[in-house]
Specification:
12 strands, 11 helices, globular, alpha/beta, 17% strand, 8-stranded mixed beta sheet, single chain
Length: 331
């Protein structure tokens, strides 16, 4: 059924809305997302990105959205839910927002929910970025390569960005930051799973001294066809090569919190899928509804052409069709 989006929340994501969720996160539980940059504005154009190719690849930090508007949407989001984390992430690289520090400070004032920063870590060579990021309770940067060749093949960085600068920036950040650093490493089958390349990534990761290292592989659709997932057993076999020992990031699978019948709407489902492809179980978990209710909405959206189903890594993912939401709302 069609619904009219409200001001915030997973059931109310619409054009210009910067706060979404809570959504299920494999690393952070239920996460209220805060998106600081336009869709696919990033320093990288990663092979595996679930949102597809980067539209604006840049190293220039600037203001994108009014901080007061972002914080007001976050306040409304927190009024309707109690997430495990407020996560500054979204559909691009959040450290490109020049007022990142103001946003993080404001989010900390809103509640006692811990604030996480999900970043590719590419701009931490900038002291201003490091100081702003240090305001977060947990920082989750990524490191997908240990040598320049693999960095350019997998991450496809903006002109002028070198892997050595990325690693040195993260090392400097570790020197000033007293919070938790959870380093994510994306492993691509046939590309970055070679022993020499894993060894190089592990060596670079050790110099950053993260509190946790989390291995991932591209199981969701959206990336380029060459971004293939590594088998679970092979992923587990890589964990011991990292210090501290790495963990394989598991898919979020639990339905947490009290059921929220109002979340079972086409608008809420589109809001979630607009941020990332999801399985039926993940949609149900993120919206806090029974799988039967989530299935009804998904099937209606598929029939309307707003969502399509895709098989990836043995699972069925539902993916928002560009422009499909507008067609669905007009029907």
């Amino acid at each position: 059924m069609a619904t009219t989006p409200g001001p915030t929340g997973a059931g109310a994501h619409g054009p210009g809305t910067r706060v979404y969720g809570p959504v299920p996160s494999r690393r952070l539980g239920l996460s209220l997302g805060v998106d600081l940059v336009p869709l696919k504005t990033c320093t990288y154009d990663c092979l595996y990105c679930q949102l597809g190719p980067t539209r604006t690849k840049t190293l220039e930090r600037r203001r994108f959205f009014p901080v007061d508007l972002v914080l007001e949407e976050a306040r409304l989001g927190l009024a309707r839910c109690r997430p495990d984390f407020v996560t500054v992430a979204g559909s691009g690289e959040p450290t490109l927002e020049s007022r990142l520090g103001d946003v993080l400070e404001g989010l900390k004032r809103l509640s006692d929910v811990p604030v996480a920063l999900l970043t590719n870590g590419s701009l931490f060579s900038d002291g201003e970025v490091r100081r702003a990021a240090a305001l977060a309770d947990v920082v989750l940067p990524s490191l997908d390569a240990g040598d320049e060749e693999l960095f350019r093949e997998v991450n496809r960085p903006a002109r002028g960005l070198a892997l050595s600068d990325v690693i040195e920036g993260l090392r400097c950040f570790r020197g000033l930051y007293r919070g938790q650093i959870w380093l994510e490493v994306m492993i691509l089958a046939g590309i970055s799973d070679e022993a020499r390349r894993v060894a190089a990534i592990a060596a670079a990761a050790t110099t950053i001294r993260p509190d946790r290292i989390q291995l991932n592989t591209p199981v969701r659709p959206g990336g380029r066809d060459v971004a293939k997932a590594l088998a679970p057993a092979s992923m587990e076999g890589l964990c011991g090569r990292f210090v501290p020992r790495a963990e394989v990031v598991a898919e979020f699978a639990s339905n947490r919190g009290a059921p929220d019948p109002a979340s079972a709407s086409g608008a809420s489902t589109l809001a979630l899928l607009g941020r990332r492809p999801c399985t039926l179980a993940v949609v149900a978990a993120g919206l806090r509804v029974p799988e039967a209710a989530a299935r009804r909405e998904l099937l209606a959206l598929v029939a309307a052409g707003a969502v399509r189903a895709r098989r990836r890594a043995g699972a069925t993912f539902f993916v928002a069709v560009p422009g499909g939401g507008a067609r669905w709302r007009r029907r």
